[in-house]
Every structure is written in C-alpha cells, then in structure tokens.
Amino acid sequence: MKFQLGLIVIAFALMAISFWDAPYPDELKLQHAPTLTILLGLAVSSFYFRMSNLSFVCIISFLIIHIVGARWIYSFVPYDEWSMAILGTSISDHFGWQRNHYDRFVHLASGILLAPPAAESLQRLGGMRPMAAAMTSVAVVLAIGAVYEIVEWQIATILSPAQAESYNGQQGDVWDPQKDMTLAWFGAVLAAVALARHRFTGAI
Fold first, then answer.
1. For this UniProt entry, which segments traverse the membrane (predicted)?
2. How far apart are CA 61 and CA 63, in angstroms?
C-alpha cells in the first residue's frame, strides 16, 4: 500500500506543480477537475480494493501524461521544442503534421494503460475469466472514452466559443471525438491482446 500511496502523492505533487506559472490557468482548472476526482478516488478506494501494482502504475502513468497535456491544454504541448532540444529536429516537421497531436497520443495511451486495470477489476469484482476480462476491457475503455467526450461536450456548451475551443482542443477538426475514440479503441485492443496472451490476473 505504501508504494501505491507514494504514487498518489507524486501525482498530486505534479498536478500542483502544473499550476505554477500556467499559461492557461482557467482552462487548467477545468482540465484538472477529473484529475483531482480520480486521485481522491484512488486514495479512498485503496483502503477497500487493493489493485495490483501493475494496474496502479498504469493508472498513475496515464494521469501523469494527462497532467502534462492539461498544463498546455493539449493543443499547445511544446513537444516540437522538446524534440528540437533533444534530437535536433521537429517531430511535426519530420512527420509533416499540421496540428498538435499530443491529444491523439493521450487517447492512444488511455486504451493501452486503462485496459489492464479494467481487466483486473472485471476478474476480481465481476468473476470473469482472464480471457473474457481482457476482451471486455476494450468495451470498458470505450465506455470511459464516450462518457468523457459527452462530459467534455456538456462543459463546452456553458463556456464561451473561445474557451470551448481551447478546452476541447479540437483544433478545427470536426471529427476530433471520433478520431480520439478510435485511437483509444486501438490502444485497448493492443493491450487486450497482450493481456489475453499472458493470462493477466492482476497478481503483480
């Protein structure tokens, strides 16, 4: 339990640090509402339902990726500047990208990283066999993604058009939600195949 609580403390600290000199403070507060909710939920639930360390690391890893994106409201994560400093080349120039794709990366990561804890929960709470739990975890990830997109849409309806665009991070792409969910599905399928092959039981 100490290991998992330590991860929660690290995530809380990173979330707090992300507010330091934040370029988009108002949008950042909205982005971190689910972050805070999930971290508090993990802290409370750890006393009643102890996940495996692997599943817990997956969830915290996803939250850290989200925290990075939230600081720059996803659309402005400076990964090109980072790649120029480290590799001497721009990722966008290399691939010919016209938009910031950090949000796409996060949705792909959501599928890969949330499928293992979903599969573990389905086995331990739902009594599913490892293979069935692995396959059903894809549906769970898609359901989480769908709920998130609906909540995001509802929040956007109460914001000004400029704030809504910044919060949603669509960057002018009307098919952004569908592409995001497709990447989450693809990531979840990859994770589910790996889980099924290794008969994941959450014992780590």
1. 28-49, 56-74, 131-151
2. 5
